[in-house]
Structures are given as structure tokens and as C-alpha cells.
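Dear colleague,

Thank you for sharing your sequence with our group. We've completed the structure prediction you requested, and as agreed, I am returning the results in plain text so they can be pasted directly into your records. Please verify that the sequence below matches your submission; if there's any discrepancy, let me know and we will rerun it promptly.
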Amino acid sequence: MTDRILVVGAALYAQGRMLAARRSAPAELAGRWELPGGKVEPGERPEQALVRELREELGAEAKLLERIPGEWPLGRPGYVLRVWAAELISAGPDDVRPLEDHDALRWLAPDELWDVDWLEHDRPAVAAAARHHEGS
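Please find the predicted C-alpha cells below.
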């Protein structure tokens, strides 16, 4: 049995742009950008957790497309990140709002992906998501 804690994130796309969410908490992460998502709860499938997290954090309904290959260690021991490509289906990009743990959102065009200060552990996942999106 492993003590790993799985965190799921979304490379959420709408109109060809990927969503970045700016953390408002905890203090050590505040002001930095990440892919939206969160922890998988006991008994929950990763895909279910990601859909739930997007609803809770953004009020957004999303369709998960496919898992982006790879798994990235996070800043806390035992935590790992898996990312899914997803598309916004509930509303337009302007209707998505930061509801939990975030204070701002940005929809980034491919040439703007590195204009925000991503959390270190999200950078390789963002790069993988960008490569995946280019190839799709």
C-alpha cells in the first residue's frame, strides 16, 4: 500500500485558450498560478474528483477528454499531480469565476502560457499539456 496522495488538475480549454487560476491560499502559495483541480477523496475516482473540483472551484462544468501522460511530484511529500485535458461545456469563458482558494483566473492563448508565474510543481505539467494540445 502506498501513502501517495493524488491531486488532479485540468488543462481546461475554451476557445483555444487554457485556464490558469491564481492561488489565494495558503499563504505560501498565494499569488502564484496553477492548473485548477484538487485532491482525490477516498473512494473517488480521479476523473470524478476533477469534475467535482472544477464545479466547486470555478462553478464550471467540464468534459474530460483524456489524461495527459505523466505524473509530477508536488511540493509536499507523497503528493503527486495527474492532469487531464478538458473542455469547458457549461458556459463561456467569461462565466467562469474563482470560487474557492483562488482570487483570479486567466485564459491564456498558446503564446501567453508563460506570462504568469506558475507554481514550480505545475510548470512541467503545463508544458506537457501544451505539447499535448499542440498535437491534438
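Summary note from our side: The longest strand covers residues 62-73.

Kind regards,
the structure core
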